[in-house]
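Example 3.2
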Amino acid sequence: MQPKDRLRAMAEQQAGFFTAAQATEAGYPDSLHVYHTREGHWEKVQRGIYRLAEFPKADWPELVVWSLWSRDRDGRPQIVYSHETADQIHGLRPRTAGPLHVTVPRSFRKNCAMPPELVFHKEDLPDDAIETRPGYRVVARAAPARAERDAYTRIIEAGED
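Structure, written as tokens:
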């Protein structure tokens, strides 16, 4: 398989977006990233994140972009959209402008300034509380009710000591 096909396959899973590391993994040397951007094959979205120009624009592209930004050293996205943002994604609230609420593992670290577009909540979410969408993850619809029930249970148990 050619690098173009490998990169396209990755980008298809992420609404047309990909990281510089993914492009390298697909077979594009770092020295060609600027060339493909200059020639219009790729659009640079932010540092280290690109979009294949041939892909249609995503409806809510920031969801994928911030997910890619949050990748750990092994390339796994750390952000899970939660709280009001999850409600908007699930259609429980109208979509509004403003910061996106994200939950990250307690061990989450980034060696840069935290973007003001995101409101961070640190919690280690169980896998069954996360729904995977194309290019990002969101707290599953049933998870908020489960989280409230779990919090109530912890309060009850704390009172029994």
